[in-house]
## 1
Amino acid sequence: LSLLAGLAAAIDGEQLRLHYQPKLQAADGRALSVEALVRWQHPEHGLLSPLTFVPLAERTALIRPLTEWVLRRAAEQCVAWRRTGLDVAVAVNVSPRSLLDDSILELVAQTLTETGLPAHALDIEITESAVAEDPDRAFRTLVGLHELGVTISIDDFGAGYTCLAHLRTLPVDRLKLDRSFVSGMSGSAGDEAVVRGMIALAHDLGLGVVAEGVEDHATGERLAELGCDQLQGFAYSRPLPPDEAVLVLQAMA
Ligand code: G
Ligand code: G
Ligand code: NA
């Protein structure tokens, strides 16, 4: 409860931070996209992981100002980088409750207008659970986001119960393979078979594929051979504060 009380103040008082983790194109190693990941610089507890407060916010009305803050800050940062000549897009995680909120389309549209971020440079990462919770509303929202010109990724793909029937009709652009399959690949022929199958499925549906949680270069190379489009993970870069992330982006531009 006290953490929750502090979170409202943290959002207002700018104790939140965004770290950025590059996603590389498997074909040429260029980093043309980064995922924004929120942290809370807590005055007593130090830098807190989103796992400690995002689920808490998601159960209350606080998820709304949190999502607003993350979208705005990520868009502003991406615009600043683009002004220096970096051709980079930013991905933002939008939790189920925010995706299903009536005002999400207006919020995204307003963020793009007010920051000047081109819509194609914003990617929204959603989880399968948002779709499972309210398929009709999720569908309408995703159509609306697509009409704005932003791209949509399904996060943690394969970890939950993805309804493949939904996948066929949903307006999404790419799947992010869940880390659990990727980390198991090097030691397990079964995991590699699952990954290979998911890449084939995605491509057959006209979707791109991102592997998350790539922790060693051998796995990254194998994923590239299997046709995976983008790679993300500690092998290439941890999530970094903006002043360090920009150096990685410049090196991998
Ligand atoms: O950065 P880290 O690996 O600690 O993130 C842990 C989890 O928190 C991830 O599943 C990630 O999707 C989630 N997360 C990180 N930043 C945000 C955010 O800005 N909004 C939401 N809803 N979830 C986030
Ligand atoms: O669910 P989501 O993809 O948003 O999760 C992002 C989280 O995964 C972040 O907290 C980030 O720190 C973490 N992460 C990023 N790369 C790796 C990796 O290579 N290995 C592991 N174990 N975690 C990673
Ligand atoms: Na994500």
Note: The longest strand covers residues 31-42.
## 2
Amino acid sequence: MDWGLKNRLSQIIKPQNNRALMLAVDHGYFLGPTEKLENPKKVIAPLLKYCDSLMLTRGVQRTSVPTSTNVPMVLRVSGGSSIIGEDLSQEEITVSIKDAIRLNASALAMSIFVGSKYEHQTIVNLGKLVNEAEEYGIPVLAVTAVGKELGKDARYLSLACRIAAEQGAHIVKTYYCDNFDKVVQSCPVPIIVAGGKKIPEIDALQLTYNSIKGGAVGVDMGRNIWQSANPVAMIRSVRHIVHGNATVDQAFKLYQTLCNEKTQQSKPQHKSNPPTQSKPQHKPVVNKK
Ligand code: 5RP
């Protein structure tokens, strides 16, 4: 593996502890304005300093991420289908390697749809993307997408992850499942776990904990962070597990503490110190003309 590729990988999976916290905000590429991600700029701004890398599309990167950031970008380069279209698995590579380099991408991400109608197309595209990306020392993250008709069990996910690794993916993103350690053991490259649809905060923390215990390097989490009632508290609590080796209880306590602090801060200060005299609170507006 060349120096550039190793260096980019080390920006995403931290070499100190072999862990990664990726914030996923790429959902709009097939879902449009996803709930609570309608304004990516506002969502990303307070969360950026707590993630190791950001997974996004070029459109969101150019419009919604400050150019001054030093957070590595994991650029989604596949697309072509929408949630209301005929088949989500009909994806192609939509971003050129030149544009990815212009965007200073630390990795390229694309989905493969093993077992779906367009399985062949997406797996061949992964191989071709790896050919091209390796020329420039850019790692490729393969997302093992699951469709309605596809299972999320260890047998299916092991198959999909292994195929992605065999095509040369440098990181594979997949889902947590029962017997997850089997998925990890049969995949020769690092696995990162997707958060999936919104669940209670404590369950998302449990998912993070289980994923790491099962051998994943970390999580690539989206909805369970920015659809949370308190996204900053949530990402910090996920981080507490990924990089602080916290238990689920410890991480959830942190979540609650941060939520309480936020509630205290947002309370109007004068309420605890009421005025002693019943003076009018606002001076009447004097017309100086
Ligand atoms: C969509 C993706 C998302 O980035 C991925 O699903 C992670 O986000 P979430 O935690 O919301 O599931 O790759 O194809």
Note: Residues 104 and 229 are 32 Å apart (CA to CA).
## 3
Amino acid sequence: PRLWLIVPAAGIGQRMQADHPKQYFRIDQRFILDITLSRLMDSAPFAGCMVPLHPADHWWPDTEASQDSRIQTCTGGSERACSVLSALHALAEQVRDDDWVLVHDAARPCIHTRDLANLIDRLYTHPVGGLLASPVADTLKKADQGELPEVSETVDRGSLWRALTPQMFRYRLLVESLESALEAGLPVTDESSAMEFSGNMPVLVEGRPDNIKITVPADLALAGFILSRF
Ligand code: CTP
Ligand code: MG
């Protein structure tokens, strides 16, 4: 099977509270989206890459990636899962059912090449696929809702993981799982949750905890620091 890459970049980065989406912030002069795309495209033999963009995006033509003939774009949707599904549909003519699709957030530029290679190696012969994940390090509390939430219990973190990306699944299984999960109105915050809903249980491959998603302004400096140490 061949490998395909989808990098959802159609979000507006509301939590960054800026006047432009976070994938178009710069670290060391380069767009975050360019850093993410080049790190991935240079590290694995992808047959192609699809990047869903916001319909009002006008930054893409200024990226390095827009000059790369292996990278195509399509129009994203209102939720991350809709953007990913639109990219999957856009790839339909070129892909075979059992080909692998890796989905990686544009906002995760700190993906380490060794984690990417490890994910592909571990899952390549698996029937479903899986994702990078990192064991939870903090002590976790369960609490009721409220202004001053009161702890009801400490959750055993022994079996808990943070879901990261890339998430890597067989093309046909992923399309069908996303379509049925969205139709059913289920909360689909990553590809893995759609697979879980359809009963195709993903495998976890341990990845570096510094594969952070840039979400709030402070994450920008942190990502710059992490990248400077690779
Ligand atoms: N994304 C997307 N389409 C959407 C929403 C998000 O392609 N409708 C992408 C984002 O561009 C990002 C990734 O999915 O690369 C992870 O989403 P998130 O971190 O939530 O980014 P935003 O939605 O842009 O940020 P926010 O939730 O703060 O608005
Ligand atoms: Mg979002």
Note: Residues 8-15, 21, 23, 52, 76-80, 83, 105-107, 213, 215 surround cytidine-5'-triphosphate (ligand 1) (CB under 6 Å).
